[in-house]
Amino acid sequence: MNYDKDVMNRLKRLEGQVRGVIKMMEEDKDCRDVVTQLSAVRSATDRTIGLIVAKNLERCIVAANEEGTSAEEAIQEAVSMLVKSR
Question: From CA 50, how far away is CA 7, in angstroms rounded?
């Protein structure tokens, strides 16, 4: 699967956030601040997962329509991926 620039940019921002958390920990910052930042990382990760699954589902549905097959399996797989990500 080709990942577009939006997804890659999100992951690069996530990488920066994680590096920031590591720096905070190295500087012995307050645990509440560290946890707040980790929560932001988790939220951004969840949104990125949703975007990836949505884009993949969109492609699968288009392919199913072009092939004249049902998109139901692709939808079920997408839901399963989202459930597993939680």
Answer: 10
pLDDT at residue number 25: 98
Which of the four CATH numbers 3.40.50.300, 3.30.1490.190, 3.30.720.120, 1.20.58.1000 does domain 5-85 have?
A: 1.20.58.1000
d(CA 9, CA 6): 5
Task: Report long-range pairs for 72-81 (Cβ below 8 Å, ≥24 apart).
Answer: 78/53, 78/54, 81/49, 81/53
Instruction: Provide the pLDDT for residue 69.
Output: 83
Can you give the C-alpha Rg of the chain in angstroms? 17
Residue that the structure tokens 């939680």 belong to: 86
Helix (H) or strand (E) holding 38: helix 31-67
Q: How confident is the model at residue 73 (pLDDT cuts 50, 70, 90)?
A: confident
Q: Which pTM does this prediction carry?
A: 0.79
